[in-house]
What does this fold into?
Amino acid sequence: MKMQPWLGSRLLLLLLLPLTALPDTQSLGSEDQALMGSRGPVVVIVGAGISGIAAAEKLHKSGLKNVKILEATGRTGGRIHTQSFAKGLVEIGAQLINGPSPGNPIFQLASQFGLLGPDALLEENQKMYFHNYPPSTLVIYSSSGKIINPEELKNITELYNTWLEEARNFTSGVCDPKDSVGNFIQQKALNSSQEWDKELAEKNMAYLRAMLNMKCCASAAHSMDYVALCPYGEYTILPGLDCTFPKGFESLVNRIKAPLPDGTVLLNKAVKGIHWNGSFHGDNSQVYPVKVQCEDGDSFLADHVIVTVPLGFLKKRSVDLLIPPLPPNKMQAIKNLGFGTMNKILVEFEKPFWDLNTSLIQPVWEGDSPLTEPKKDLKQNWMKKISGFVVLEPPAQMGHVLCGFIAGEESEFMETLTDEEIFSSMTDYFRTFTGNPELPPPISILRSQWHSHPFTGGSYSYVAVGSSGIDVDNLAEPLPTDKEAVKPLQILFAGEATIRNFYSTTHGALMSGWREAQRLIDKYPEIEVTNSKAKL
It folds into this structure.
C-alpha cells in the first residue's frame, strides 16, 4: 500500500522556521526521531462511528494527518443512524442527547454547530433531571384498556426513584459483588408490599414491572437482575432534559467529519485481522509494527491502530481479531462486561389516538410483578416487554408517529419476525391498550435490528453482575501493556464500552475517541508544535 506524505516538504518548513520552533528531537528515542524525520506516524482507525470519527478529526486538527478510517459498512455513524420515515427523519440508533448540559460534549458541539432547537438551549432545561419531567405529558394505559391517572402511582414512583438512588449509593458502601440492581429493587418491593392491601399491591407491582422494563431499555439488559449493583453508581448522570436533533443525529457526525480530507474514510472495509508487535515492511523500506488485513484482501500498515468496534463485535471476534491474541485480562473484561439489545419499533398512524399534549405513552400489564418470572413463550408474550412509546414531534413535520422501545431476549426475538407479523402484533397491541377493538391499524411500521447486525451484535454495554469498572478500564488499556515497550501504543481502544463513567452513551463514545487521539498527540508533541507554528 502506498503511504501518503503527511506534511509535504518538511525540510523546507524547518528551514523557514526560527530556531526556537525546531522540534526537540532530544526528547525522542532513535526510532521516533527516524519516524518524525520521514513521514510522521501512520494511524489506522477501525470503525467510523462517532468515536472513530472524533478521534480522526482530533488527530487531523493537531497535525497528525496520516490517518485512515476503515468502516465495515457502507455508511458512517455506526450506532448513530438517521433514516427517513413517515413525513420526517427518525433515529434507528441513538435517539437523543442524554443530559444536554454544559458538561456534555455532544451538547457542546451540537450547540456550537447550531444543530439544536431553541428549547434545548434554555438554561432551565439544562439544569433539570429526567425524573422531573412534567407528569402531565405522560399517559399510562393498562392492559384492560383503561387510562390510569399518574397521581394514583405517584407514591410507588417516588419509592422506585428512592430505591434507584439507594442502589447508586452502594458504590461507596458494603456490597456483595454477586448482587444485582434487579434483586435490590425486588427486595425493596417485597418489604414495602407488606404494608399494601391486595388491590394496591397488584397495582404497584404491575407498575414496578413496567418501570423496570424501561430501565432495561436504558441499560440494554434483558433483566435488571443482570446489572451489577456494586458499580451501578459509577455511571455519571448529567443534568438536562434529553433532547433530539431536528435534522437527525447524523447531522452531528457529518459536521465532525467535515474537516477530514477526502479519502480518509474507506467504506465497506471490514477488518479480518490485526497483526501487532511485528515488523512489517512498507514503501521506502519503512517498518511498521501493525498490519491490518481486510476481508476484501486489502491490507494497511500502521504505527498505531485505534479499535472502536462495539463490545458486541469483540465478544464474537476477540479470539481471532488480534494476532497475537489479546492478553488474558482484556479477554476476561470482554467476557465479563454486559452488552445487550435495545430496539425500536416506529409506528405511524393516519390519525392519533392520543391527546396532542402527550409526550410519553406507558403500558402497564395488569397482573405483572417484578417478583415473578414472566412466561418464556416469546411468540405469545414478546410485546409485554415493550416499555413505552415516545410521541415524535412536531406532528406537522413527522406525521403521527410513536417510537417504542424494547430490550432483552424479547427484543432479539422481535428481530426474527416478518414485517407482516410485526404489523399484526402491533395492531392487536394498541387495540388492547386503548380498549378499542375497531382502532384503525397503523399505516406504516419500521423497526431496528441491532442484535442481528453483523458488526454490532446488540446495542450498547452495561456493567454486568460479575464485572466492575475495572473491566472497563482493562478494556480501554492500550497494547502493548508494557510501559517500557520499544513501540508503545500499537493498539488503542475506544468506544462507549471503554469509558468507565459514561458507558452506553454517545458522549461517552465521543470522549473515548478524543481520549485515544490525545494519547497519540501526547506521544508526538513536536508535530503539534510544528503544525501550530506553520499556521502563523
About this structure: The domain at 117-236+342-447 is CATH 3.90.660.10 (Polyamine Oxidase; Chain A, domain 2). The chain is about 35% helix and 15% strand. The first strand starts at residue 43 and ends at 46. The chain has two domains: 39-78+249-338+457-534, 117-236+342-447.
